[in-house]
Amino acid sequence: MRLESLVNQNYDNLNENDKIIIKQILICQREYRNFSCEKIANECNVSRATLLRLCRKIGLDSFSDLKYLLKNNQLEFVNNDNNFHDVCENYRLLMNELQKISFQDICKIIYDAETIYIYGTGNEQKSLAQEIKRIFLSVGKCVIDLFDIGEIEFMRESFQKSDLFIIISLSGETKAGIEIAKFINNHIHTISLTRLDNNTIATLCEYNLYVETQKLDTLQAISYEVVGAFYALLDLLHMNYIEYRRRKE
Asked: Could you say which of 126, 166, 209, 224 has the lowest number of CB atoms within 10 Å?
């Protein structure tokens, strides 16, 4: 379990002060992973007792559990001027992380769903939505991709409790995505697919899937975000779903 996942799952248990503390820990986790409980508490300007209460609020039994997550929470990406072999090594690290994901509960939700609805917040996300549609049409599921809030408002009357809505957002913080996640909340099962981070859309969804992404420098004055890990995640989800259905049938 990743620290960001625990925070998103228990976000409703946190007060505003807790959110400030956890945000600082997430930002500084590489620095904090070798700190003691007292030192992290001092860095966050809180007491040791407050930090321990926060650990319990996000489902940890002790500070030792937090320390373990901090030490194992970061992929140590190699970055050497976009060297091809380094990019390949980073993909290997990403695949190792993806293999740790348990798809059992999500496969059950997909299996039970009469209809799967999908929404992507941007162009790349809509491409991912098309890939999800292709994957699950191939195994006999009814899949409908929705373009915007207007289409979702129109289709909401057709939602059944067993249906599934998948929302895809790299950042998990787009205004339209948050609006849609709030709009469909409690009407249907929901899965978010986002970059691994503490983000609003993930906290609003019932289930979460995450991947790490990598940014590369380009010839222009902008960076390019490698999103291939999302497609690898979808392949693993597809294979796990096929195995799940074989066991059920």
From this structure: 224
CB–CB of 203/4 below 8 Å?
no
If you search the block for the tokens 């991947």, which residue do you land on? Answer: 211
Please check whether residue 208 is in contact with residue 194, taking contact to mean a CB–CB distance below 8 angstroms: yes
**Token match 């976000």: residue?**
11
Query: Across-strand partners of 195?
Result: 211
Give domain 98-248's CATH superfamily.
Glucose-6-phosphate isomerase like protein; domain 1 (3.40.50.10490)
pLDDT tier for residue 82 given thresholds of 50, 70 and 90? low
CA gap 121, 131 in Å, rounded: 15
Q: Convert the pLDDT of each residue in 107-125 to its tens digit.
A: 999 999 999 999 999 888 9
State both tokens at 103: 């798809």
Per-domain boundaries in the chain: 3-72, 98-248
Q: CA gyration radius for the chain?
A: 19
User: Could you tell me if 237 and 116 are in contact, meaning their C-beta atoms sit under 8 angstroms apart?
Assistant: no
Q: Which two tokens stand for residue 178?
A: 């948050």
The amino acid occupying position 26 is L
Beta-strand ranges (E) seen in the chain are: 115-120, 142-145, 164-168, 189-195, 207-211, 214-217, 223-226
Q: Which pLDDT score, from 0 to 100, does residue 78 have?
A: 46
Mean pLDDT of the chain: 86
Residues in the chain: 249
